[in-house]
Backbone:
């Protein structure tokens, strides 16, 4: 079943953060309304988990690219250094 689910979610890896987040929001809305049958609820929940993981990976990559601007005492930019995300 895991391989079947991987195939069903193969398109996620090509999604932008915004696309994945939008679909994830739609899934959450459907699950909150409770208007889907149990089997379908499980399937879309699993897709939601895959979308959440994808969004998390994309955010981690973005955070790794962010840099902190160093300023001199008079407030002028003097360079950059990696952002400490911890």
Residues:
């Amino acid at each position: 079943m895991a391989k079947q689910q991987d195939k069903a979610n193969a398109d996620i890896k090509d999604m932008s953060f915004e696309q994945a987040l939008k679909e994830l929001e739609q899934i959450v809305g459907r699950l909150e309304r409770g208007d889907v049958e149990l089997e379908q609820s499980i399937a879309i929940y699993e897709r939601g988990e895959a979308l959440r993981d994808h969004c998390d990976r994309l955010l981690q990559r973005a955070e790794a690219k962010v840099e902190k601007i160093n300023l001199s005492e008079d407030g002028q930019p003097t360079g950059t250094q990696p952002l400490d995300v911890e």
In short: The first helix runs from residue 2 to 8. The radius of gyration is 19 Å.
